[in-house]
Amino acid sequence: MAPNDAVITGFTVRDLRWPTSLDNIGTDPMNLAGENSFGYLQYKTDSGLIGTGWSFANGQGNDVLCTAIRSLAPRFVGRSLSSITANMGETQRKISSGQIRFMSPERGVLQLATNAVLNAIWDLWAKAEGKPLWKLVADFTPEEFVRTMDFRYVSDVLTPEQALEMLKQQAKTKADRIQLALQNKAVPAYNTSAGWLGHSDDKVRELLKNAMKQGFRHFKLKAGLGIEADRKRLGFVREVVGDEGILMVDVNQLWDVDQAIEYMKQLADLKLWFIEEPTSPDDILGHAKIRAALKPYGIGVATGEHVNNRVMFKQLLQAEAIDAVQLDACRLASVNEILTVLLMSSKFGVPVVPHSGGAGMVELCSHISTIDFVVVSGKKSILEYTDHLHEAFEASAAITPEGYHVTPRVPGYSCDVKEAQFLEFECPNGSFWSSSVGQKMLSDPWRGVPGEQSS
Ligand SMILES: [Mg+2]
Questions:
Q1: Could you tell me what percent of the chain has a pLDDT over 70?
Q2: pLDDT more than 90, % of the chain
Q3: Running DSSP on this structure, what letter comes out for residue 2?
Q4: Which residues lie below 8 Å from residue 86, measured CB to CB, with a gap of 6+?
Q5: What is d(CA 20, CA 38) in angstroms, rounded to the nearest whole number?
Q6: Is the confidence at residue 198, as pLDDT, over 90?
Q7: Which residues are the signal sequence here (predicted)?
Q8: Distance between CA 386 and CA 360 in Å, rounded?
Q9: 146: CA distance to ligand 1 center in Å?
Q10: With 70 as the cut, is the pLDDT of residue 420 above it?
Q11: In this predicted structure, what is the pLDDT of residue 277?
Q12: Binning pLDDT at 50, 70 and 90, where does residue 195 land?
């Protein structure tokens, strides 16, 4: 049997949570305690191949995500892989339709579940073809690429014909960029591991120096502690990284629009490339106002990790609201919708700088950024590199001594987590979550809320 004729025979969904808050990983101004978590789906097939897909959560709520995945996953049971992938754009449209769409169309937890299910299909497809996902997409003809996308709601800025024309232009030089990808020279990395709010100044200094030794020149830090505290912290960071270091700051939706403008003006002398998520991720015109106000100060605006769908990105681009498209590989409806956003961003000339600040995100995004460079924009753009939990993955991400992401080589979408991780971190029965420490964390309804957390 050809692998593409594999029939999906069943699935499992597991709730996986790493207690990352114990190391202050994932701490930001809105959340004191982030536990990197997956709603983890595996499709079994009659060929023996397994398709793995997951979406990301931050601790509490991961059970809701798992329930949503269990609601959608049966739609593909009994189907052959080739019947699902023959027209992936239509598959995306169908899985976003029906009774369940009422829960919140292409938004929220349902969109996360859609992503997990489609990620498992893309993973299975790439494994069946024996290629890493980025290469599966790089080997598509422009027509095949366009067939994976759903243009509904975005055809006012991007038609299938325009997409085809853009892809044909880039196809002329694609072979050269595939060679660069195979030499691990496609995706430069930037570092966020030094920047979590929970780290002491000494710890930040040490992490920055290590990152610079690894070849990093771009650094992103959490901010929003108050002008004086931020000036002190960012001031010594600027000293450590020097004038040539490129600094970005992230406040995770902390401010109102005018507050963001006033606050950031006072940090202008620190020469920051952009402010990330200055306000509500839904406030497209607010981001546009902040960007216009900060432009004379040389500070850009970035957002995207909580942007739920292609329509919001369309409007952010139309409103000239952002200097970087920070799409999240799990927040959109999988590779299908990501490809649409890559093409729209390229059309508007805004670089894609994916959000990948959590477990497994670098593993997925290294495929996405490679596709952007090789197939869509033809331009190098940076990708976040966080240095935790790579050892948990079968096909783990890494960087080169020159500060590039290693281009994925293993067939699939790099979603597979090592089974040993589940013995410890599956929730609630893994050994960590069964322990007294784990039980206390799980039973605190206010975990992550400043002033309320009791665990
Ligand atoms: Mg962020």
A1: 98
A2: 83
A3: -
A4: none
A5: 13
A6: no
A7: none
A8: 10
A9: 30
A10: yes
A11: 96
A12: low
Q: What is the pLDDT of residues 333-345, one digit of tens each?
A: 999 999 999 999 9
Dist. CA 274–CA 234, nearest whole Å:
13
Distance 198 CA to ligand 1 centre (A): 15
Closest CA relative to residue 61, chosen from 13, 118, 119, 108 = 108
**Which residues are catalytic, by number?**
222, 355
Q: What is the pLDDT of residue 2?
A: 62
Count of C-beta atoms within a 10 Å radius of residue 356: 30
C-alpha 355 – ligand 1 centre gap (Å): 7
Distance CA 428, CA 320 (A): 45
Pick from 27, 402, 398: nearest CA to 221: 27
The DSSP letter of residue 208 is H
pLDDT at residue 418, as a whole number: 98
The SS3 assignment for 82 reads helix
Report all structural domains of the chain as residue ranges with CATH numbers, in order of start. Answer: 7-131+419-443 (3.30.390.10), 163-405 (3.20.20.120)
For ligand 1, the distance from its centroid to the CA atom of residue 250, given in whole angstroms, is 6
Q: How many Cβ atoms are within 10 Å of 430's Cβ, its own excluded?
A: 19
Asked if residue 4 has pLDDT above 80, the reply is: no
Peptide bond before residue 188 is cis, with ω within 30 degrees of 0? no
Of 90, 93, 22, nearest to 59 (Cα)?
Answer: 22
Kind plus residue range of the DSSP H or E element containing 312? helix 310-318
Q: Compute how many other C-beta atoms are within 10 angstroms of the C-beta atom of residue 454.
A: 10
Tokens of 70: 């269990």
Query: What are the beta bridge partners of residue 246?
Result: 218
